[in-house]
Write a structure and sequence with these properties.
The protein is mainly alpha-helical and 151 residues long. It has helices at 8-13, 15-21, 42-65, 67-77, 86-106, 110-127, 129-136; strands at 3-7, 26-31, 34-39. It has seven helices and three strands, in the order βααββααααα. The protein has a three-stranded mixed sheet with strand order 1-2-3. β2 (26-31) and β3 form a beta hairpin. α3 crosses α4 (67-77), α3 (42-65) packs antiparallel against α5 and α5 (86-106) packs antiparallel against α6 (110-127). The radius of gyration is 22 Å and the shape is extended.
């Protein structure tokens, strides 16, 4: 769907004109010193949410029944996974597909972005052997020992 940009002040001065555009396109409202707003029809948003959920289910099933295919696709989509050790790459695919399903269920994709950001940072550490060595050494610090997370 096409998107058109308008200023927030245009929307305030001529709301009917801006709303009329929603029949055919989404509208981005640019605001001074504030995040841009997106106006769109609710039915289009609902359709997009359902499509994302279907894609998440498809990817999850594909990962379950054809892990080799998904691994290759992940390598193409996220080139940085090349630096992840094999077991970590498998965990990434498992977490990503599960997170996509969960995000689709609650219609909030922020956790997916966070997951990708964290795994990319992990890959960056593996790509830099000196940094990986430094980070794998025990810390010389005082204080209580923090227990490892429980699975």
């Amino acid at each position: 769907m096409e998107t058109v940009e308008r200023t927030f002040s245009e929307f305030l001065r001529q709301p009917n004109d801006v709303v009329a555009e929603l029949a055919e396109r989404n509208v981005l409202l640019r605001r001074r010193n504030a995040p841009t707003l997106r106006l769109g029809r609710a039915d289009h948003y609902d359709e997009r949410s359902k499509a994302m959920e279907a894609l998440a289910r498809l990817l999850r099933n594909l990962a379950t029944y054809s892990p080799v295919v998904v691994d290759a696709a992940v390598g193409d989509a996220f080139a940085w996974t090349t630096f992840l050790p094999g077991p970590d790459r498998e965990i990434f695919v498992e977490e990503l597909t599960r997170m996509l399903l969960g995000a689709a269920a609650v219609d909030n994709y922020s956790p997916v972005t966070q997951l990708i950001r964290e795994w990319k940072a992990t890959a960056e550490i593996h790509a830099d052997s000196a940094l990986a060595r430094r980070l794998s050494k025990p810390l010389d610090a005082s204080g209580d020992i923090v227990p490892a997370p429980a699975d």
